[in-house]
Hints:
The complex is a heterodimer of chains A (216) and B (221). With 216 residues, chain A is mostly helical. Chain A has eight helices and no strands. Chain A has helices at 2-42, 45-59, 63-78, 84-109, 113-121, 126-156, 168-179, 182-211. In chain A, helix 1 (2-42) packs across helix 4 (84-109), helix 3 (63-78) crosses helix 4 (84-109) and helix 6 packs antiparallel against helix 8. The longest helix of chain A has 41 residues, at 2-42. Chain A binds chain B through residues 57, 59-66, 68-69, 72-73, 76-77, 79, 151, 154-159, 161-162, 169, 172-173, 176, 181-183, 186-187, 189-190, 193-194, 196-198, 201, and chain B through 1-3, 62-63, 65-72, 74-75, 78-80, 82-83, 161-162, 164-165, 167-168, 175, 178-179, 182, 188-189, 192-193, 195-196, 199-204.
Amino acid sequence: xELALYSLPFLWQGTLITLAVAALVAVFSLVLGVLLxxxxxxxxxxxxxxxxxxxxLIRGIPAVVLIFMVYYGLPVLLSFPINNFLAAVxxxxxxxxxxxxEIARGAIQSIxxxxxxxxxxxxxGFWSRxxxxxFPQAVRxxxxxxxxxxxxxxxxxxxxxxxxxxxxxxxxxxxxxxxYEPMPLYIVGSILYFxxxxxxxxxxxxxxxxxxxxxx
Amino acid sequence: xxxxxNYNFVWQYFDKFYWGLLLSIELxxxxxxxxxxxxxxxxxxxxxxxxxxxxxxxxxxxxxxxxPLLLLVYLVFYxxxxxxxxKYSPTVSFIITLSVYSSAYLVEIFxxxxxxxxxxxxxxxxxxxxSPWQRxxxxxxxxxxxxxxxALGNQFVSLFKDTSIAFVIAVPELTYAAKWxxxxxxxxxxxxxxxxxxxxxxxxxxxxxxxxxxxxxxxxR
Lengths: 216, 221
């Protein structure tokens, strides 16, 4: 108990870093993923193929390998050092963007093409068609898998501890290194991760309820 | 100072990569087998069980699905022995971790698969006089497997990718081999530029195998 109280501020710092990494990755991958997903549906065929190849490549490589490639491999090739936080966020963003692109593409393609044609017929340009016709309908197909993906991002953010960022995972390891009592700390850590992710998934259920205005 | 790309060390120690990849595949196969047994058992209990058991299993699923695998790996390898007073090898420890972790996902997959078995099929089994055990083995299990095959394939590939975490407790799998080259021979870029395609090829081989299985066995719609 004393131990828990002693380590709490330290773990809290780690939790903040975990949340920061997850939030950055989530925001960047959301923007890039929606953009690439839209391009994958409506872009020119060279774009479409590049995006296809990118998504398929990312699908077959573990996130850990990607993080090490960016953190250890890139500085060697470019011969200048990369900050570990930047490297980890970039690697996880590259990884997550692949998944978000797939989700966005699936959501957009699920909207009947007649909708886009109707938009064209009333004289909307491409982006107004997207913003006023396609996206509002696609969002409810997009949200459930995306929030699922968000918990994966939080879980994946534990990997940044491997390149020396003191997130929740590494904070736990460091406290254990001092007090030599692994079990209680790992349990505290697992409860913290559970709370973050469980909070996310229950928030998502409410959000889904809000967006499910059309019953199928 | 420029960096000269040199693959000599990677080829010289390629057996580490090769055995590492095989071990990764083995870890994934063994874990999904154990995980499937646990998962299928729990799914059966969930489908037929009383409410409090459902709650318990749902809590198990929610808990493990919301944990980073890395934390579980540390917990099982460093945490559990420190309380239990026993030791196991890193490989065994990792298999236990991955089995439990995957079982939480597999419960969900099998549960939805069991729900998809039509009621009439079970009644038909009853009508021709099959015992509950026979109904399970000859009606529910095969029907469920057909429905769940695509999800199982995805789960298997994602488990295979998850084995890349095992290097943190020194299980000599593929990422460990790459890590070994980077720390001992300093051929950083080369090590990962070989390991990543190996993962990629293995993943796509698995996707292909599961696609074949699906074509052979999948539920006809």
